[in-house]
Amino acid sequence: MRLENAFAGFGLPGRPGTDEFWAAARTPVPVPAGDGGWVTLFLWRRPPASTGPASIDFESWSEPVPLRRWDDTDCWYAEVRMPARLRVTYRFLADDAAYADPFNPVGAGGDRSIAATPDAPAQPHWPAVGAADVLPVPRTRLRWTSERLGGRRTVRVHPAGGGGPVVLLLDGDDWLHLHPAMTAFDSAVASGGMPAVTLVFLPARDREAEFACRPELWEAVRDELLPLVAESGVPADRDRLVVAGQSLGGLSAMYAALEFPDLVSRVACQSPSFWWTPDAPGLADPLGGPVGGAVAARLRERPDLSGLRVAFDVGEHETRMLPHCELAETLTEQAGATVRVSRSASDHDRAGWRHALLRDVAWALA
Distance between CA atoms of 25 and 266, rounded to whole angstroms? Predict the structure, then answer.
């Protein structure tokens, strides 16, 4: 019985590796664990001749988990303990290559998939996109050659609902090619969840350099990019600019609000890297430095943030990020800003930030 119905507890009939088994296969499949979390089954159908090691690589949340082969079949599997409320990006690694989960319809680019425990909150407006699907891209494409930043980059612009306040999406290529932000914003606007907006997808050439607390990026956005957007013919209200960023992008968005208040007065940042100091990237433990990093040090100077509206979100499983974010959140509010604070059911993972992105941009424009 153990061989014939090995995964019956996950609702999968038949002996692993048989046609009957694969016809019913779907993953990931979570079942309740005794500690309030979940045991989640992952399956991968791998050619029988493939005998080398294979693993599941999770984004930030966990170390890689080995996949085991069932007997001499083409069935490789792992039973993974997951905490309550978790949404996580993962991929299969084998033979020096990465693969999406072919049994999971929710993808993030060509070689990644997204798993969510049943108690993770829903993410309305974000469609299920398979690994083989090609995401739509905005029709308007701007060639931006920046004197301040150097080099040339392609910036896409999309008027969701006909266009309105500019929403500058840092790491714009991720929101174009890994997660369908254009479709999600269109849906949110159509449902009345936010006003019409103009999305500007800003790609990063060198994240560590551009998103560090330096003025060049925001001088270039102010003096070069936004005038270029204004000349594009797409309706765009730059006077109600919202900057949305994650991780180092969230750090950069908050830096812009502190140092360029005439430009940036509305911010939506998820898991901002508030551990950052000029020396931190070169340390063995970048998160082990002063709590709140350079942003907290600047906030202790008590700048007048009464004109700032900022939404903070961080993954509830990011235990080492939380102290940095909590201090910056508190100091920002004490400096007079209007602040919203939330926690997403994720670790340091764009899959967990997606709902916060829509919700917090809408709140920033309220």
Answer: 46
